[in-house]
Each structure stands twice: as C-alpha cells, then as structure tokens.
TrEMBL record:
This is Uncharacterized protein. It comes from Hymenobacter daecheongensis DSM 21074. Residues 69-88 have a biased composition (Basic residues). Residues 1-23 form the signal peptide. Residues 69-104 are annotated as: Disordered.
C-alpha cells in the first residue's frame, strides 16, 4: 500500500514540474545543443578491475557431497595403483662367493 501511495506521489510531482511546462524560444534550441556537445564526456571512475567471475566465493560442499567425493577419490586411487604385494618374510638363497680366495 505504501509503495502505491509513493508511486502516485512521484507521478504527481512529475506532472507538477513547472520547468517542463515552460516553452523555449526556437532560437535558443540550437545554442543549447551546441553547448551540450562542446563538453567531452567524463568517464565514470572505475574502482575495481573486472576479473571475470572470480569474485564468486566457493562455499564448502555439504556433508553428503563431501562423503561422495571422498568415496570417488578412494575408488579412483585404488583403480590406478598397482596391487600391493603381500608383506611377509622374504626368503633369499644362500650367498654365492664372489670374492677371490686369499692367496698364500
């Protein structure tokens, strides 16, 4: 309701503007046109450079999404790695002599 009243008030103020009702002489129109074109446009100040969509802050995914990604990462890691060898006792043959026998 207040927005509707505000809208009606703005419309009333636009209609009641006395400068819009005044007529200008025909000779003054070209002077005003040249006067406005004489001034160069001043660019707006740019406070921050445009950096694409990098200003969007990435939020941390929820619990279920994190668990899903964790499962996928574990599955992918287990697929890409070679199977692990069994850990146990390594049996080795007796050493063979490679040293020359001492000479007497």
């Amino acid at each position: 309701m207040t927005k509707f009243i505000l809208l009606l008030l703005c419309a009333l103020l636009v209609l009641a503007d006395p400068t819009a009702a005044l007529a200008e002489p025909a000779a003054a129109a070209p002077e005003a046109l040249t006067e406005t074109l004489a001034y160069p446009r001043v660019p707006r100040p740019v406070y921050k450079r445009y950096r694409g969509n990098s200003r969007n802050k990435h939020r941390k995914p929820g619990f279920f999404r994190r668990m899903k990604l964790r499962r996928q990462a574990r599955r992918k890691q287990s697929m890409n790695t070679a199977p692990r060898k069994r850990q146990g006792v390594i049996k080795v043959d007796a050493p063979t002599g490679t040293m020359p026998k001492p000479q007497q």
